[in-house]
Structure formats: C-alpha cells, structure tokens
Amino acid sequence: xxxxxxxxxxxxxxxxxHRPRLAAEAREGLLVEExxxxxxxxxxxxxADVPGPVDGAxxxxxxxxxxxxxxxxxxxxxxxxxxxxxxxxGLRSARRFDHRLQAxxxxxxxxxxxxxxxxxxxxxxxxxxxxxxxQSPRRTGADRAGPAAPGCYHAAxxxxxxxxxLLAGAGDACAQASDGPGGGGVVLGPGDDAALLAPPAGxxxxxxxxxxxxxxxxxxxxxxxxALGRKAVGAALSDLAAMxxxxxxxxxxxxxPKGFGRNEARALGLGVGEKLSAARAALLGGNVARSTAGxxxxxxxxxxxxxxxxxxxGRARTGxxxxxxxxxxxxxxxxxHLERGGDPREELFAPAVARLLDPEPRLALxxxxxxxxxxxxCMDLSDGLARDLPxxxxxxxxxxxxxxxxxxxxxxxxxxxxxxxxxxLAWVGGEDYELLVAGSHELEGCNDxxxxxxxxxxxxxxxxxxxxxxxxxxxxxxxxxx
Amino acid sequence: xxxxxxxxxxxxxxxxxHRPRLAAEAREGLLVEExxxxxxxxxxxxxADVPGPVDGAxxxxxxxxxxxxxxxxxxxxxxxxxxxxxxxxGLRSARRFDHRLQAxxxxxxxxxxxxxxxxxxxxxxxxxxxxxxxQSPRRTGADRAGPAAPGCYHAAxxxxxxxxxLLAGAGDACAQASDGPGGGGVVLGPGDDAALLAPPAGxxxxxxxxxxxxxxxxxxxxxxxxALGRKAVGAALSDLAAMxxxxxxxxxxxxxPKGFGRNEARALGLGVGEKLSAARAALLGGNVARSTAGxxxxxxxxxxxxxxxxxxxGRARTGxxxxxxxxxxxxxxxxxHLERGGDPREELFAPAVARLLDPEPRLALxxxxxxxxxxxxCMDLSDGLARDLPxxxxxxxxxxxxxxxxxxxxxxxxxxxxxxxxxxLAWVGGEDYELLVAGSHELEGCNDxxxxxxxxxxxxxxxxxxxxxxxxxxxxxxxxxx
Lengths: 482, 482
Description:
Two copies of one chain form a homodimer. By secondary structure, the first copy, chain A, is of the alpha+beta class. The first copy, chain A, has three domains: 1-154, no CATH class; 172-306, CATH 3.30.1330.10; 313-471, Phosphoribosyl-aminoimidazole Synthetase, Chain A, domain 2. Chain A has helices at 2-9, 108-116, 158-170, 225-243, 262-278, 330-339, 350-357, 363-372, 385-396, 412-417, 422-428; strands at residues 99-100, 128-129, 135-136, 186-188, 195-197, 203-213, 246-256, 282-290, 296-306, 321-325, 377-380, 399-403, 435-439, 449-456, 463-466. Chains A and B meet through strand 5, strand 6, helix 4, strand 7 and strand 8 of A and strand 5, strand 6, helix 5, strand 7 and strand 8 of B. Strand 6 (203-213) of chain A pairs antiparallel with strand 5 (195-197) of chain B.
C-alpha cells in the first residue's frame, strides 16, 4: 500500500516500494518501513529513513522538495510553535498481519486528500469519510487521525484497510469511541486497547466465544463473506440466547487467508453488522491476523442477563417437560441439499439453506424465559438434539424420554426429497440454533416452545427415544459413512 | 478413544472401532456414533446402534451379555423406577472438532471406574477425579457427569479430552460452575453456553481479544505449549492493564493441529492457568476447534475498571510528559538471539528470552493510574514504540518529541552482542508489553514510569526523535531485509 500512496501522489518516488532499506544518515525524523513478511508479529522490520543521502534507490522525499506528501509541516493554530516538528516526515506503519479492530491512523484516501486540501487544519479534518463516502464523524476516536496533516504521511497498510472495510461494512453496528453509554452499555468501541461497557444495574455479564473455520464449519463455496458474517454472529449470539441474556456487543478475531481483500472484508462486515444490529448489539473491536490456512472468524459476544436469572443447563429435574423451539433439522436439510450439489435457490430447499447459512438466535425466547424467573434448564442446539440433549441431561444428572413423533422436523416433502424423514433430520441435525428447554409443563406454547418429551430418572445423559424411530435405517445416513 | 475404552474393559468388542455402521434394528436406545471426519461441524455422523442383529462386524454389547460396559442399567435410589431407561446403552458422543470448554459428559477414566465400582450411585460419583488424581468436587457442573452409571457408557472423545486436560492443567485458575461470585465477579465458569460474571459496583467492563498464531506470532520450536499459554494470556491481559482494568477472566478459542495431544493440552492449560492465577483471573471457558494449519490461541479477556476511569489512548495533550514503564527492546533482543540460533539458556540472553516468551502485563501500574483518576493517555506496547507511539498520538491529535538517550533499552552488553544499540532495540522492539503513558510530569517514578519525551503540537501521530539516533545505521537492521 506504500507504493499506492506514493504512486497516487508522486510518481518520482515509486521506487519506495516494499523493501526495507538502510538509511545512510539517521538524525531526526523516523519513518517506519514496510515489514519483512517472514518476521514474527510485533517484531517486523522497522528502520529509520531520514533526510539525507541514502544508499537505496531513491532520494528522500524532503530532498526532492516533495510537497504532496511529507514536506513542510503546518502547525495547528494555538497548539504551539509551528514547525516544531519541522523536517520530519512522520510515520508509515509497517505492514502487519495482526491488527486490532481499530481505524487506520492515516488512511490512504486521507493522505491523498491532504495533498489536495492543504489548508485545513489536521484537527478539523479528523472527521473521516468512510470508504463509501459516508460522513462518519464518530469514526474519529483513537487511532484515526483523518487526512494527513502536511508534513506527515502515513501509508495505509493492507490489514488496516481490511479493518476499515470491515468497520465500514458493519456501519451503524460499529459502536464508536465517542458514543455514550447506549442500550447495551457501550462506553467505548473499536480503536483502543479494549472496549468498555457499563453494566446495566442488577445485571450479570454473559460471555461466550464461538469459532467458524473454513473447511471445518463452513465451505467458502456455499458461504459468501457476508453470509459468513451473519452465520458466525448468529451462532455466537445463540449462546447468549441460551443464557437468557440480551446482547451488548461482539469482538471479532479474524484469520484472513491470501486473496481475502477489501471487498471480502466489506462484505463480511456487512453481514456482521446486519446480524448485530438486528440484535441491537454493537461491533466493539477485535483482531485481524494472517491465516496460514483458510478464513477463520472467532466471535466473542457479551450480553447482560438479570442477576440470578441466567438459564443454566444443570437445572432440569425429574418430571420436567422437555421442549424445543421452532423447527429442527432444517439446517441439516440445507447442508444435505448443498452437499448433493443442489441449487441453493431451489424453492423447496431455500428455507433449509437459509437456516444453514443464516441462523436466527432465539434471543426473544431466552429473554422471556429469564424474565419469567422460573427454574428451567436451557441450552442452544448447535450440534443437534442427539448430541446436545445428553449434555443438558448430564449437567442436570437426569435422563430423558423423547417421543420421536413429537420432534418438530422439516416438512415431509423436504425430508422425502433428501431420502430422510423429518424426525431423523430433527434428531441429528446440527446448527439449527433453536433452544432446548426443560421445565414446567406450563411452558408449552411459551413463544414457540413445543414439548418433545420428559425428564426421567436414569443414568445422567441417557436418552430413550420412545416409539418407532424412523430415521435410523434411512438411506440418508449412508453418506455419513467415511 | 472409543477403542481404548473398549479395549480396557472388554477385548471382545475391540472391533467396535471407529467406523460408523448402520444398525439393522432401530427401536429404542440411541448410540451416537463416531463422526465422519470430513463432515462439517454440527452435522457429523450420528446413527442409531441398538440391541439386535447388526450388519457390522460385532454383535451388540447387550446381546453378548457384556457387563463391563453398557449392560444392565441400575436405577438411582429414589429416582424412580429402576430400569425406566432399561436396555439403552446411553450415548457416545461423536468425535467433534469444535467443543466449548466444558467438561466431558463422561470421561474415559470414569467409564472404567464404573466397571469396577458398580455399587456407587451415579449421582454420588459425579465428583470427578482430575486426570492427576486430584479430587475436584467443583468440577461437577454442567456437562460433567462423572463415572458412568451402570447401563450407560460414554466414550470420551478426543477434543473433549483435550478440553479436560486443558482445564486440569489450568487447575485452580479454572473457575467452576459451582463457584460463587469471586473477586472478579465470576458466577459461572466453563461448561454452559456462556460464562457469567457479576460486575462489581461502580465498575465498567473492559473487554479485548488477542490472537497468537503459529508461524505468525510464535514459532513452535521456541515456544512450548506451556510457554504459549503464558505468552498468549500475558499479552491479552496487557490490554486490560492498558485500560487500567483489573482482570476477571479469560475465554480461550483454540485451533489445534494434528499432533496436538493430551500432554500439549495439559501443558497449555498449565501456562494459561499460571498466568491467569498470577493476575487473580479465571479461565471461564472457550472453544476447541480443529486447525487445518498450525496451533492458534485466541484469548478473550474481561476485566473491571472503575467507571469513568478507563485509560484511553486519545487523552494526550500538548505539554504532557511521555513515559514508558520498564525496559523496552528486551523481547526483541530475545527474538534476535533465538533467530540466530542462540541458546535460550545463555546467561546474557536469558532475561531477554524470558521477556519474549513470558510477557508480564503491567496490571498494577494500570490499576494505579486508573485509581489516581488523573487525565492520562495510555496504551500497551505490543508492536514497539516506533509503531505504537504514533497510534496514541494520532488518537490524541498530537505529535511528540522523544529523546533517544532516554529510551530505556536493554543492557549495553546485551545489545552489543546482537550488533544493536539499546536505544534502537527500545525504539523498534515489539512484544515488551510495557505501558506507554502521556500525562502530568508528576507521574515520573509512579511505579517504574520513566520519561522519554514530551507531547508537542504537530501533525497527529508524528514523532521527532531528538538527538543522534544511534540505531538507524546499525548492522542489526540488516537481517530484517527480506
């Protein structure tokens, strides 16, 4: 990106390029150089690059009398003697592959702007234009200084551009440093060492982390960056739903492979922002690192639950009714369809594919259950009832009976088209992100909770599925054999 | 691990093996089978495996009259009719590569114990022995059911074993579900959908995430799993120090490559636990996922800072003094030494290597600054002064002058041995995790803050290093050329 800034502003220094170079003279003024890519993070190449003869391929900017970038500094009115830092050309950040989600100290566009709008004071121009040209005066917090002040330029670095695109994509979901305490208690958003959140009175923080890894949790061919943003955030928020918590914010830790560029970052940010906004939560920061494999999105979420009302797994008791929300097995139906090369837009399968790629955390249900204040056990169904139900039961020290005929599976024609049965899909299907609840029989119909069985004494974690279980011999299982 | 359980208990069913197999009969009782490894998380293979003739290589356990594992169920006294779930053999979790940091529903050792100590009730035996034989009655929260109840067995799965080892390694730093609110406000530790923390009155949450990726941030050859645990947690906690926050807890999101086994998980957990304990913080959960590349540790940390006292980057003002804590450039010296093939134990370099591998977050200093309540700007130095100082300045809209001779670099003989100067190491060295502070001149000597320069008006982010800068021509920079 160094080259691009320079190209845009002064072709004479195109050779500034990407390779560190020893400075012949090092007196005053330091220019942080491009990093050697094979150095460890935090120790990437930095070298002085100063006015005076150098043994590299170019004469220093100051010597060339370059005015477009990095020439005569202009002091800010009232800030002290103008030219106090005269002669220095400021700092170019080294390329780095790990960068907190914070705005770029100096954006490329900003550096260009400064070459044109020389007159404006640095401080008044700290309002940055977003990549889409949107005025975002709030994006002026830590580490975002806006267009370059004369006498100083910063080359934007690629990862910082990715961060900018991500934040821009997230749009209004991106809580800025200058925001006051909001609904989720956000005091400070991206750009500092940590985000700050003010706890609502009488509430406890619920805090979780969830990973989505290319080739493990999703396939890039099916899951666009925007869809991945929605999916990763949706899945993470589901953990808060399962605790009865109201989401406040998220931190993203991204691992980006080669080829993940500005457009992808923008699209990912868009999906993240959409999903967070829908939950009235904010993107509060994160980390972008190079991935030596595929794309990875780690989403850490924080929410607030009324003190003492968190919905734990270990509270099921013998005699409880067992409920699930919504429809189970839809995401699996979508996966099977895609695995078989099906068209995601095919009408019969579209809802299933949508569930797979865009899970809807049951936040309202979770909050409702927490507000009721009754004893319930609750968890979200990320791995499928067959695997998650035993976890809830084991945590509670109980067993359960499930009525296969009550399992709320996908429509019969959808299941049939996949060679499955609704019950089998409902039993083994993962990634539905519905809630599993054990509690009073009176919960039937609370939001869309449906009873599927009951809690019984027995070996902790054991499940008996009563009645004929129609899925076990279905051909649909064949494809799962290695 | 399935095979290992079975081998230990009954050689007759060795062929149970690792491959899913269709059951010929599927009526009651479900056994979750080993997953096909190439399926997406949340959709791994699950199939019924029940008493009756099967087309696989083995006769079902019940038919063989096997008593060691999974035979006659025994009801718990007072829990209802014995045999209510009779005939079912319980659940084996499918192998999965993504697992929240929660204890295994049924541990391998537990399953063996159950074969020997038939008489104990399942409930009373939910106290799990840690892998080291330590009684840890608190490790009995969600999802940890202890030794298998007769009539039910669970095969431990590899990732869940890794989680167990990690938690065991973390030891007392691993806050358990049954813990009451502690110093950090921990209400609920690992094992549920989310951790719960009760905010101390009048405090704001500080929340951050930090990644350590093999080949990007560390090299496995230099950084043992235990050291990585210490380093990753130390670096993450440094963000809290930089905000003036007192750490409460951490969530770990691990990506584990092939070859990362129980010993490595235990060692990583040990390092994580040591570092968290030293900060009086708790391991509260996380996520273990398969990594298609190297090892990855993402650490999300949460702490509490008195409301309104958070140490932001954007609060430096012209006239402020500029301070750093401790010694800068030590970690870089350690890195250079290791990169040159040096012995990490070599006396001259040992402190430098220790700093590289085991950063010490300046938590006490951060808390002190927050408690003083004065206006200061603060950030931690993860990428080196040359890159981090401009960030703080840009966030504050100011510039700075730094006196190279005041930079608190490593000892001269250490620098000399590396062909460097102390000042150059101090200026460019990353990963020291010291604090950079701008504020009143009276902060000099607060903890170990030392003045290195002052804040001046000028282009936001610009730095002038006054005096001869001795490092710029040093040969030491040569090796950074690509």
